[in-house]
Amino acid sequence: MATISCKVFPNYLEFGLEGQRHPDAQAHLRDCPRCRALLEDLTSIQASAKDWGAAEVEPPAHLWTSLRTQLVEEGLIRDEQLAPQRRQKWFQGWFVLPRPILAVAYLAALIGVAFALSGPVNERINRQRWLDGLQSSTTPVRDHLARVEQNTTLSPLLDSNPTVTASLHDNLAIVDNHIALCEKSVREEPENELARDYLFDAYREKADLLAQLSDRGGYGR
Amino acid sequence: MPEAEAIRLAQQGDAEAFERLYRLHNRRVYSLCLRMVGNTAEAEDLTQEAFLQLFRKISTFRGESAFSTWLHRLSVNVVLMRLRKKSAAETSLEEVTEPDEDSGGPRRDFGAPDLRLSGSIDRLNLQRAVDQLPPGYKSVFVLHDVQGYEHNEIAEIMGCSIGNSKSQLHKARMRLRELLHEALRQQARDERKAAGNAIGGKD
User: Fold this and answer.
1) How many folded domains does chain A comprise?
2) Is B44 near chain A, with CB under 8 Å?
3) What is the CATH class of B123-202?
4) pLDDT one-digit tens code per residue, B75-109
5) pTM as predicted
6) Contacts of A73 (CB under 8 A, 6+ apart)
7) How far is B88 from chain A (nearest CA, A)?
8) Which residues in chain A are contacts of B34 at CB distance < 8 A?
9) Pick from B179, B168, B172: which is nearest to B109 by CA?
10) Domain B3-86 classified CATH 3.30.470.20?
11) Residue in B15, B18, B146 nearest the CB of A52
12) Using an 8 Å Cβ cutoff, are B127 and B38 in contact?
C-alpha cells in the first residue's frame, strides 16, 4: 500500500526529477499509473526543453549596426574611433617614439644615410652628385647600413609582438634583395638616373626598417 | 582578444572591445530573449536594450561575479521588465498557475492516463506553452531547462534563493504540462472535427 497520496507526490518532484527519490515517493510511483504518467510527462518536457536550448540562435547582422549607432549617439563610443583608429594604431605600431637608447640607433640610421649621401667633400655620397653621375660609389652607404644592422639586436624578451617583428625581418630580406638588384643595375648602368634613384630609396627603406626593428625591443650592442 | 582584456578595454571606451564582447555573447542573449518572448522583432529589441545597458554600466563591473552571469542577470531583468509591463493589464497568470494553492497543493489535473506528452512535444508547441507562462516561471524554466543554468546561478541572476528557483521551476513544468495537454486535446478535437467534416462532405 502506498504511503503517500497522489496529492502529495508532486511535492517530491520539486527538488529534481532525477536522482535518488524518497522511499515513500518511490513506493507510490510503483503503485500509481497516474503519477508515473506525471513523472514521464515532466521528464519529456525537460528533455524537449534541453533539445530546444541546444540550438542557439544567431541574431540578425543588422543588430550590431543598430546597437553601434545607438552607442555612438549616446557618446559611449565615437564614430571616428572605429576605422580611423585602426589605421592610426597600425601607424603608431611602426612609428612610436623610441626609447633614448633606441633613438640613437634610429637617428644613426637616418642621419647616416642622409650624411653619407650628402657629404660632397669627404667622398660621401651626395644624392644630387650621385644622380649627376659624379659619384657612383655606394660603398659608404652600404657599409654604414651594414654596421647599423650588425649593431641592432632584437631581444625576444622585449619583443611585444613577435609576429610584427617577423614581418619586419621578412620586409628587410625583401629590401635587401631589392638593394642587390638596384646595385647591380647601377653597376651595369652608372649613368642611369632611375636606377640610382631606386637604390637611394631602397637604402632609405632599409634604414627605416632597421630603426623600427630597434624600436621594437632591440638595443645597440 | 580574450574576454577579460575586452572588458578592460571596453571600460576605457574601446569600440573594438565593445564589438568583441557583443560577438562573444550575442547568440546566448538573443536566444534567451527569443525564448522568453517568442517573437523575433521583440527579441532583437530586447537584445539591443540588454547590450546597451551592459555598455552603459560596464565601467561599474568589478568582476565579483562572472561576466556572463552579470550580463544574463541584466538581460533577464530587461526581459522581465518588458513582460511585466505587457502583462500588467492582463489577468494575473499567477492565479491561473496556482489555482489550488489555497487548498494546499498543486492542481490535480494530471490528464487522462492514456494521454502522454512523450514524443508529442515539438518546439512550436513548447514555445507556445512557454509563452503562456507567468514571467517568473518562464524565466526560471528558460534559464534552467532551456539554457542550462544551475539553480545557484539562477538564484544569483534572479536575486532569489536556490529553493525558490527549484520551486518556481517545478511549478513552471507542472503548468507547462497542463498547457501541453490542453494543446493535445485541442489538436485531437480539431482532428475529430476535420474527420467529421470530411465524412459529412462525402455524404
Assistant:
1) 2
2) yes
3) mainly alpha
4) 988 988 888 777 664 544 443 344 444 433 444 44
5) 0.55
6) none
7) 27
8) 57
9) B179
10) no
11) B146
12) yes
